[in-house]
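Pasting as-is:
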Amino acid sequence: MTGVFFRLKNLTAELRIGDRCRARRGPALGMLGALCALLAVPLFPAVAGEQRAGVVGSIRLVGDGIPDPLSGIRGNAERGRALLVERAAANCLLCHAVPDPSMRVAGNVAPSLEGIGRRLSAAQLRLRVADIQRVNPNIAMPSYYRVEGLDRVATEYRSKPILDASQVEDIVAYLETLK
């Protein structure tokens, strides 16, 4: 987001991109407009190779993926399968079908995960699990590692990801096996 900044001057909010003024709000709406604009910044799609906050720590996006493991090490597919199956943290089976005969109850409102490891790279899977809303802001699936720019989050869950970095990596490792 190079060149985008917000300035408050005499309670007037101003959005500038480069040296051109894009929007101004008068004194009555200045603070409210600036606050709304600042809250919207984390929702802009990332630029390739850009370091981004909004998740725990910061991540490096390259293209449409996160190439580096969030926890610094690759995940464990067995633990990832266990997370996918359990109905607590990830709850993937609520919406997704999985090509595993032992998982008898699965959802059908989201795409099947069959072949996902063949269609997407580990970096692409990591981004989709960690922060799917950067790929598609209108999707119902939660961003499991993102902590900022979210709305209607209960107080006790603010600034806490749904899954920690190692859990995201475990799910990515399991999804990679679904060829």
